[in-house]
Design a protein that fits this description.
By secondary structure, the protein is mainly α. 73% of the residues lie in helices and 3% in strands. It has a two-stranded antiparallel ribbon.
Length: 185
Amino acid sequence: MTPPAFLTGEPLLWSAVLLGLAFGFLLHRGGVTDPDVIVRFFRLRDFTVVKVMVTALTVGGVGVLLLRETGLATLQIKELNLLAVCFGAGLFGIGMAVCGSCPGTGLAAAATGRLDAMAALAGMMAGGIAYALAFPWLAAEVIPVGAFGKVRLPDLLGLPEWACYLGLVAMTAGIFRLIARGERR
């Protein structure tokens, strides 16, 4: 299938800019550019972040499935390096708890003029530079530990891909139901 003109070349770049602006706007409208919302999430008092994250994950996952099924996209599977993922997730979580934002919400908050978000953005840039400088050591000492190669959940579970996406949608519905039940209390 030949992709539409807006999905190729220069129009694709402009589509990415427009989608990025829309994503930032939606993050702001969803309330997750407010660091207090992030902090309340880590204190298990506000689940707005969870709602936004699982919605984005589910919509993105189903969108990727549809793009693949229509021949408009292919997957480039990355290797699973478990220790590196755990290490990175831990640092990411600490940074998110300390500054009250993650890269997406931090950039959107900085675009609204929040000085704390601009400071967090500077911290993210410093972290990126530190990662680049530490990469030779990480590649030798951390990344090989728990390296499983290019694996995907459908392959590990022995299920068709659509079943995993259906499970993702069901999991999202379950999470929303649990959150709604907790919010009623």
